[in-house]
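protien #1 (seq + structre)
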Amino acid sequence: MSGHSHYATTKRQKELKDNARGQVFSKLSRAITIAAKGGADPDANFKLRIAIEKAREASMPKENIDRAISKASSGGELEEVLYEGFAPGGAAVLVEVATDNRNRTNAEIKNLFEKNGGKMGNPGSVSFNFAPKGLLVIKKTASDDDLLKLIDLGAEDFEDVGEELEIYVEPNKLNEMQKKLTENSFQVTSAELMQKPINFSDVTPDKSAQVTQFLENFDNHDDVQKVFTNANF
């Protein structure tokens, strides 16, 4: 098992607690619309399925999902943008957004970096330290053979996060692994595409609260879809 960012788990748990909020539905709608637009992305259909599954997990009404899909063909200007930078103390941060006004979002994201002790970087400044992965979260069982079984099924890596296990696979194996896990009686609670840190940056105890708040400020921005960091708390 590799190093792990505590913030990733904390953020996911917070999303589960807050998934009835209108802001979460808005973010999910944008993710569905972006995925439905597809374009030249060969994984567009897969990403759309993942986005719809996340919306259903959050109890998003079907009419909201259908409306988000319809927006993809309405000629809207919604686009994906990736921002890179550094948290206080130097940990790397990736911020994925879906915006209909890039100039506005550029200014707001830069402001979130700089007014809170971080620094926005140039494209490529930190993304080299992340690898695209598929992430599946399963409920732990009482069996001591779970980890061996996961390896046999093709898990590249996994993390024990209390009552759950986080399993990492290549992005194009996410759908296949989810099916295998279900067929082998594992309860899959979440499946998504993410950016996994290759190397971690330790956060000192005196910086922990500041860095956590710094990252949460991005999560609370309406345009932000996902935040990834190599901060190790």
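ok now protien #2
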Amino acid sequence: MTAEPPDLPVTPVTLPVTVIEARRGWAAMRLDELWAYRELLFFFVWRDVKVRYKQTLLGASWAVLQPLLTMMVFTLFFGQMAGIGSEGAPYPIFSFAGLLPWTFFAAGLGGSSNSLVGAASLLKKVYFPRLIVPVSAVLGGIVDFAVAFLVLIGMMVWYGVGPRWEMLLLPVFLALAFGAALGAGLWLSAINVEFRDVRYVMPFFVQLLLFVTPVIYPASRVTDKLEAMGLPGWIYGLNPMAGVLQGFRWALLGSAMNPWPLVAMGSGMTVFLLIGGLAYFRRMERTFADVV
């Protein structure tokens, strides 16, 4: 017979427990975590770009076709038939120079507002800085912007518009567009978690915002009207994209209108949107996993 092994003493093993607690105040945002999780941020951006053109026939060509076809429609109906001015520049390049930052802003705003709902499964299972989700949704539009910008360079060569030193300031205006899209997107993404009406309001809101932003017409048309009414023209900068678009055209085409009053007012509005959006996002963040 085989002897049975003696009973050995069982030593209990204590596993480490990690407790994640909600923080109070601005410390809850942990903006430094964005850098610590930068690889995850890059993955989210790359995933959004791949999913956007997955199983599409034309792929990334849509990044060019969308503003290009819109420019053709605007040129036909507003540039030729309606005779809307373009500050001395050819209307096709005038409208395309405005459509590039506008398309980036509109895509970032729409993507970030629905980003938390789209990442519901991850929010419920894994911890990571929730701020990464709307940030990656806006950053993904930079790829489309860069592709379409090459077409704008080709149009400038075609129309004989030479390079200007002011073009070095284009990243500043792009950063303002990014901040405006992210600031508004933080508000809308947090609201969308609790009230799904945002997904139905967004298309109408973006369409309405298109007509109150100087995409089709020069910003001087609005500022001149405001000044004729006895109001300062820089009030138009309450729409932060007004300064961005005017700044783009000034840097690219040498617009006669001074863009800096609109840019200054728009920058203030962008900072307000970002600070307010971060505060509201922080306040609602602890409920995302439960409600989404």
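The radius of gyration is 24 Å.
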